[in-house]
Amino acid sequence: MSSHEPPHESSGPAALRAVAEQVAAEAAEHLRGLPAPRDAGAGGVSTKSSPTDVVTASDASVERFVRDRLAALRPGEPVYGEEGAGDAAAARWVVDPIDGTVNYLYGLPWYAISVAAVADGVTLAGAVAEPAAGRLWSAARGLGATLDGRPLRAAATTELAQSLLGTGFAYRAERRARQARMVAELLPQVRDVRRAGAAALDLCAVGAGWLDGYLEHGCNWWDWAAGALVATEAGAVVHIAGSPGVDGLGDAGLGADVTLAAAPGVAADLAAAARRCGADTV
């Protein structure tokens, strides 16, 4: 598609969703055309907050691509991205060029590109594209969530003991240790726990009913901006501490930077169990 196309006239959720879907899908195609980071040599990989917090040349390339496409399709609308930063308060678009960079680095297929349209910090529409699988998740506020065009619905699970829980861990060793202690205490109370390595996709998985719940501390805005809306619009209860419009549990007492999404039948029980396991101290 030409970069000279006119911008969409509407700024409603449906129109924003169409842009997010288009840009995320095009960015996935762009990423598939880039050399694998290990093929690019040591110069293609660096670190950020810790030695385990990696960033690849592909992360930067995808974010530049997304910013260029949004500038063409929605000129003048500010972008806030993981690699290129920007003014979070003024953001119209929130971008994670590769959510699950470590998976991408190792050749594991569970990684994605997340593009969300926001207003005053609230997500109006978003899309999460999986370059390896070719899947496209999307949602618009009040208009539902889909996977490759098919409507999504969160699981009907009502028993925490029969729930499959997703989680994730921070990059810094001392916090990983605290998270691991909490998860170890939660593990006997659920069916099992999965750590797949991409927050946006874990949230989408809750929306699809592939997970009954997801709980993680330390996620950034770009990690959940699109995926949380997918889960919400699929009927999941979603709570992200301190985030406007994502307060499905009110004052949950789970910590200042917790992200929780769950099937409605187990959300309250999961939150209560997490509190008992020390979530607010993670």
Automatic annotation (TrEMBL):
Keywords: Hydrolase, Magnesium, Metal-binding
SUPFAM superfamilies in UniProt: Carbohydrate phosphatase
Top-level enzyme category: hydrolase
One Pfam family, short name: Inositol_P
Entry keyword Magnesium: yes
Gene Ontology terms, MF aspect: hydrolase activity
EC number(s) recorded for this UniProt protein: 3.1.3.25
Stored InterPro entries: IMPase, Inositol_monoP_metal-BS, Inositol_monophosphatase-like, Inositol_monophosphatase_CS
Compositionally biased region (Polar residues): 46-56
Region (Disordered): 26-56
Catalytic activity: a myo-inositol phosphate + H2O = myo-inositol + phosphate
Gene3D superfamilies per record: 3.40.190.80, Fructose-1,6-Bisphosphatase, subunit A, domain 1
Reported cofactor(s): Mg(2+)
Family in the record: Belongs to the inositol monophosphatase superfamily.
Full protein name: Inositol-1-monophosphatase
The species this protein was found in: Pseudonocardia spirodelae
